[in-house]
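Thread: "does anyone have the structure for this chain?"

Original post by V.I.:
We have the sequence but no experimental structure in hand. Need at least a predicted one for the grant figures.
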Amino acid sequence: MPKPIKLTILIFAMLSLAVIAAAQPAPDPAIKATQVYGKVSAINASTAQFNVTTAAGNVVQVSVSEKTTYERMPPGETDRTKAVATSFQEIAVGDGLVARGFVAADKKSVPAQQIIVVSQSDIAKKQDKDRAEWRRRGVSGIVSSVNPSTQEITVNSRTLMGQPQSVIIPISSKVVLRRYPPGTVPKYSEAKPSKFEEVKVGDQLRALGDKTADGSHLTPEEVVFGTFKIAGGTITEIDAANNQIKINDLQTKKPITIIFKPDSIIRRLPQGAGAMMGGGAPGGPGGAGAPGQARPQGAAPAQGQTAQGGQQAGPGGPQGPRPGGGASFADILERMPTISINELKVGDTILMSSVPGPDPTQLTAIQLVSGVEPLLAMLSARPQQGGPRPGGGTDLAGSFGGMFGGVGVP
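Reply from O.Q.:
Generated one for you, tokens below.
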């Protein structure tokens, strides 16, 4: 056979293999040869079967028999000696579940020899406990400096009355340091292992650990951080069908499109918010502690958003008293109910934390707050951090950084 023909056949064969490989779905790490794990999405007691949905969205049918054994593990535990016996009847939709057995070749079913379950109610209780711990022992704010020689990070925040606060956080090899992937609406569960060198000035950061009596230092056990943007403006257009709005940006005076994802949170300041805050200046960089907390139970999600109570984007919950006295704006904000995109109005003034992307005219909302005119009025009544800005303008990052979401807790 002539060489040109052989070469042509070889190229076609390689292209065919590439097309076949591309058509194959990516492997689901939750489905292995002898194990499946995910959340129980349906239960059929009459046929003794579960539907388990993995994090990737694949559904596997789990069949049980009289030989199947059942164990319940406390949330977060890996020590099997902590497991207790349970039964088919005690498993509920929403529970986390591991089914062990020989998974079918099509990865759509498995006859389970063993079931290990973590109940949704137990998970919720642990999350509540963990959040309370972060409120009690956590600090948060905007990274103002990074000292490579001492491996220390300084975080700044402000109280509602505008009082600046700084906390120095030394990073040792024992600290669990994690970062939210760029370009994502942050969830605590999705933060990735990181290192000191990746922390940058301007990042939003939250740390859990032991504070000194004066609150100037914290010895951390865990640190989570990420890079986010604070934006604001007046709504000029609302596209509820596509979960988008347009604003005129406060700083650039140019139009920006705001995109809402399922985990984005929308809130509105109530009338009289200025009086509620005592007429003081809003919390500044990181006054909030930052992001990633679950939506309050029973709060209405924005259109196209989920109402699930898992780890969602948004401000970290109430932070508790700050060193130096005074609460942050996030402490108040977290207690406000969410609203839907349909409750926004053209002409509303908004502030938001957002995920910056490659297109500067589009931002993805982490948390958006409407009716913020009182906050902007307070801001204009006090000196801008670092003095006047060139050409005027509003220093949103310096005054509101960290308030509306970013790094979060369980």
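V.I.: this helps a lot. Residues 112 and 339 are 43 Å apart (CA to CA).
O.Q.: and The helical segments are 3-23, 120-137, 273-276, 329-333, 373-380, 396-400.
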